[in-house]
Protein 1
Amino acid sequence: MQSCKLEKNKAYIDGRWVSAASGKMHAVLNPATGEKVGEVPDLSAEEASAAVEAADRAFDGWRKTTAKQRCSLLRRWYELIMDNQEALAQILTKEQGKPLSEARGEVAYGASFAEWFGEEAKRTYGDHIPSPSPNNRLITILQPVGVVAAITPWNFPVAMITRKIAPALAAGCTVVLKPAEDTPLCALALAELADQAGFPAGVVNIVTTSDPVSVGDTLTSHPLVRKVSFTGSTPVGKHILRQAAGTVKKVSMELGGNAPFIIFDDADLDEAIKGVLISKYRNAGQTCVCTNRIYVQRDIKDQFVERFKTEVAKLKVGNGVDANTEIGPLINARAVDRVESVVRHAQEQGAELLYGGSRDDAGELFFQPTLLGNVDESMEIANQELFGPVSTLFVFDDEAEVIERANATPFGLAAYFYSRDIGRCWRVAEELEYGIVGINEGIISNEVAPFGGVKESGMGREGSRHGIDDYLEIKYLCMGGI
């Protein structure tokens, strides 16, 4: 099977598949069954530094390739990812747990960044600037920033990687990637396909480890690394910013969220329920743009709760390889313990359990789709990223009130609202303090649109024509004596 060829048990550095110098291996477990599905080298900080040095050696040659050459290689990588879509989806579900239908969608989504940024490589234009002097000519050119350190999370172990590697390669940068310790197999499979596509040695490097702190600190403070791209929690992002400050690296941060989903009384309720279901419960609620707080206008609250509860009760929990599964396991025991604790504490603070609320019989790491009512902003559950299949319901009376409450958070990644009033759509969209706003839509991500947050949800954008910007430096050339 193709999946066997893609399942690697070595790290990828300088065009070679390598073991840890210590010989240590790190087990990868299936969260649905607890079974070991693979193992990868447990690399040290010193070996991460060696990967940076390999990327630095490769940079001089890679930066001199033409945009068309880089475009061709990225196009070939895209084609190989799509040719192996099913094999990659099987690996993804085994190590991460999400339903196969979602895994297949993620692989296609991830591949789209290789295609998109391959094309964008040819569009990194400079400028001619009209000079204030007749004897001067002023132009700007764009050049690759250098070696990029990318650190990716476990919840989208294909898409989060291609969303960082593809623009870096398109710009002419080389990359050292540290995937999440729970989900390294997808990263190594993508490296195998990059190798097959023909990327030169050292251009793409994958460092696997069970020690993310020391390896991550090495990558984010290394003097040869000129750019850091991180997706993960806000506390870790703040630590990385401090690490990168020592050598004044360029940084992109896609951090935590606390997304509101607002349903006004003039909304199409059928569509709103569809939107919030997919926004909240895909990947068992383990996405950074997942709905965290559902705000329902008072006049339609009872109708919404009754219908939404019915739909939540229909969701099928189980192993991601089963065709009827809609909600897979959480990633590990810590995640389940945390969600269970958050739900219990919310009830102690006065939240009403409307559905679910417990671990599921499907297995040790499964949690029931859950619905909590009577929630308000004084409760701890309202002020944190849930990262689990738990919905919290808030009631509001008017537009100004709900905007103020939705914005009352340090986070600003994604927000959603449903309304059929065109004036309200413009007003609310402009007033919400979020980098991404879904209007009558629960799925917002694609390769052509800029993805990123404001406030403590991060900086920079991924995807779209803006996604390549942070991997490029602007150089101004002033020509005199004309």
Protein 2
Amino acid sequence: MTAVSVDAVLDTLGRDGYAIVQDMLSPAEVAAARAEIGGLLAGAPTGRNAFEGLRTRRLYAIFAKTRLFDGPATHPLVLGVLDRLLRHYHLSAPTGIEIGPGEEAQALHPDDGIYPLPRPHPEVVVNVMWPLDDFTAANGATRIVPGSHRWGEERPGPGAPVVVAEMPAGSAMFFLGSLWHGGGANTTDRPRLGVIMHYAAAWLRQQESHLLAVPPEVVRGLPERLQELLGYNICPPFIGYVDGRHPRRTLPA
């Protein structure tokens, strides 16, 4: 990977609301992740509505099912960006997403919209998308409204300047939770696979309850930083304690 600094990513995020960094994963890492995530998705149901995608499959509880995203979730560039933007944070909704052939475009939305905060507000959500296939306009690459992270309560209308975030497999796309975006339509005859790591400020409730989703005996063997990201941590001064103690003390010996 060509060296990319935290400052460079932050500058682009501040201007556009998203930043693409290529070659974050090697071809071998992409192939292994595609095979494993694809296999885990094979039995997953498709979405229940148009927003989830009636031809889209999602893999939840990723860290209970594979170790192949432990590294990407704690990549130094990722954590460097998050440290500057969110300071204290945890994984909220890491999800494998396979957009199937014939899927329609998802409605544009900001991912921090699930929290009842007036816009604009300081960033509370940052996402990192990891494409395991080349993302193209034809197969459902994410659609983005650049600069919309600076909006107040406006919504993108028919003439909004939407761009398609095309990128090769192995890239990583950082984007702010306040940015309006949505999955694209897949007009090809093959599915499009990616994994999104959704991080939120540690004082917000996680979308997925990892303390229940990932068995404690699995968490016990994970790197300490990943344990913290899954929720075994304290948001200063004392949010998240268990019986007055650090939550990591609850893990089995």
Protein 3
Amino acid sequence: MELAALLPFALWAIAITIAIYFGFLAILTIPAVQRQVIYLNCVTLTWFQDVDYPETWGFLHNQVTPFNLHTKDGETLHAWHILPLEVYRRHEPRLIQEPPGVVEDVKTRLSFKLLREDPNALLVLYLHGAAGTLGSGWRPPSYRALYAAAPDRIHTVAIDYRGFGTSTGSPSEEGLLTDALTLAEWAMNEAGIPSSRIVLFAQSIGTAVAISLAHHLAMKPTPTLFAGMVLVAPFANVELLTATYKVAGVIPLLSPLARFPRLHALLNKFIVTKWPSKDKLAEFVGQCHKMAGDNPKYHVTIIHAEDDWDIPWTQSETLYWNAVNASLPMGISYEELDKEKIQNRIDLGAGGWIMQHQSPKGCLREEIVKYGLHDRIMSYPVVSLAVWRAFETGKPTLES
């Protein structure tokens, strides 16, 4: 009798839960809500910390120079220039004499001159993931990991996209591409670093921005190619991501509807933000293979942890296959590539595995590690080595 009495309450609870979920789906059709769910830019994760003073995150005094970049559409982007440790050590007395805080004209600072005037300097352009600021979570440790393999050469410049941190504006696909272009143009034109000495590093949604940037510049009549891309915890596109994505690694987005393909496809039509990374990466690789000359044009490393709760590592599998397929004249099926992986991949035991596809025009490398979650992996040596490898073996050339 007691179970019978509880049954109506249980049914009501289920009905209310379903109603709330479908109400949530209805709200998701509003573009402004979609943007916040995807970018989480209002969640700063650095409350009560001042991003104008990076020493708060354990950096040496003036090892990081905060400054602003200005986009062609009128937004102001907050940026950090992180000096590699050995460069800082060599010039520490002069660096600590400079005033701290955000710089109005970064070209007046010693750190900028050390980047611009060193013919051996290498530069990582850092495009972070959703939520937070450039000082949030595992990002500061990851900046230190980037120069670990060459602490006398590898500089890093990171930005907060529009709508993130103290940057102005509101995020969008077009807007974030503009932000990335602003950063790249500053690096090449203001800092004077040729694209052959630049590697794009990106994580999570930043990987979509990096791929979009590389694609955009490669498709120009006079293409620009970077030394390489290192993509950590990427996704194939938003449509495929919604089938598995959990907001903050906890709240499922559309995954409960993934069992109903037609309904899932219908709801995806209302999602304005697309980020078609798998298609753009394939087009980028295909475009590089059309270019004249036999020298390498691209070096792409995809890194993902199997225990990533936010974006499943299988998203990297899809991205990698699309890139490899575009690199082959006759293409390759997903199943055929899977068979090749079984035969040719390098098994690292508890370290995961590596698969590499090499062609005369470039290198595509997939590294799946066992552990690292979604963010912690950014500070791991696998990233340090991938960045150094991209600098060493990327070095694309363009022949007319």
